[in-house]
Specification:
The protein is about 45% helix and about 30% strand. It has one domain. It is α+β, with helices and mostly antiparallel strands and about 110 residues long. The radius of gyration is 26 Å and the shape is elongated.
């Protein structure tokens, strides 16, 4: 899904996903950060700056399903990587055990 993001700002920190702002749309927010600015009187104020996207509820359902699938694939890859690391560590332990046995028998 191709999402159009635009720059937005507010004095209130937005949630990453806002379902209750509109009965028809869902608002997504990313890269949320706080910046300090000066108002016209020179008073320092804090503003929240972020990327925002507006999706219909139907498009959000598709987006959420795609994101969930991506998250699952990413988690599976992480588990695979951890399994490989564990197997490598087990092999190193086995190799060390064999070296110790060789030294004891020498």
């Amino acid at each position: 899904m191709n999402i159009e993001w635009y720059q937005s700002e507010s004095t209130i920190k937005p949630a990453e996903v806002c379902l209750d702002w509109s009965p028809r749309n869902v608002y997504l927010h990313r890269n949320i950060r706080q910046e300090e600015r000066e108002d016209i009187d020179g008073v320092k104020i804090k503003m929240w700056v972020y990327d925002e996207a507006k999706l219909s509820r139907a498009d959000y359902a598709i987006y959420a399903a795609e994101k969930t699938a991506e998250d699952i694939i990413s988690a599976e890859q992480e588990i695979t990587d951890q399994d490989l690391s564990m197997m490598e560590a087990e092999q190193e332990i086995t190799d060390l055990d064999l070296r110790i046995m060789d030294l004891e028998n020498a």
